[in-house]
Design a protein that fits this description.
By secondary structure, the chain is α+β, with helices and mostly antiparallel strands. It has 4 helices and 7 strands, in the order H-H-H-E-E-E-E-E-E-E-H. The strands form 2 sheets. Strands 1-2-3-6-5 form a 5-stranded mixed β-barrel. The longest helix is centred in the last third of the chain and has 29 residues. It is elongated and about 115 Å long.
């Protein structure tokens, strides 16, 4: 009888621990663009998370927007409803590093809605970090070279005039 009670309590304890483990939220894994592209068939139709910098223009299409997100390795096109877009201050280009966002959505290897393109239809977008302006240094030797070239061009432009004046004298 003692053995049976011990077994019942052991089973109850194991079940409680299993249920406790199931109740803990699991952290979603952020998938890289390279992995999405290389294993597109595996991720097709699945909900994924993708994080990266917004680059280029955000293109408005009725109640939706197209945007491109680059994670430093490759770029994925994102299709999102305007109402889930966080306010965007910067998009990546030569002068700016774009805002970093985390996108959750359904991955399409060949989206029938968008002409067979590989894309991600966002269901949730979070702003992770705001972008910033990039300072580009202009090296002083470039100014000197530009000045010398400018003087050379002016001299070449005036050369025919100077030679024709001396020929007349």
């Amino acid at each position: 009888m003692k053995m049976m009670r011990l077994s019942v309590w052991s089973i109850c304890l194991c079940l409680a621990l299993c249920l406790l483990g199931l109740s803990q939220p699991t952290k979603a894994t952020i998938t890289s663009a390279t992995e999405l592209i290389e294993k597109a068939a595996l991720f097709d139709g699945k909900i994924v998370q993708f994080q990266g910098e917004i680059i280029g223009d955000i293109m408005s299409r009725d109640q939706y927007v197209w945007l491109n997100i680059n994670d430093g390795q490759a770029t994925i096109g994102i299709w999102a409803a305007k109402d889930i877009m966080p306010p965007v201050k910067y998009t990546g280009e030569y002068r700016y590093y774009g805002d970093t966002i985390l996108v959750t959505g359904k991955f399409h290897r060949a989206c029938s809605q968008h002409g067979g393109d590989l894309d991600l239809h966002a269901t949730e977008i979070s702003l992770i970090a705001q972008g910033h302006e990039i300072e580009h240094e202009t090296h002083n030797n470039k100014w000197y070279i530009a000045g010398i070239l400018f003087i050379g061009i002016i001299a070449l432009a005036l050369l025919p005039w100077l030679t024709s004046k001396h020929a007349r004298d």
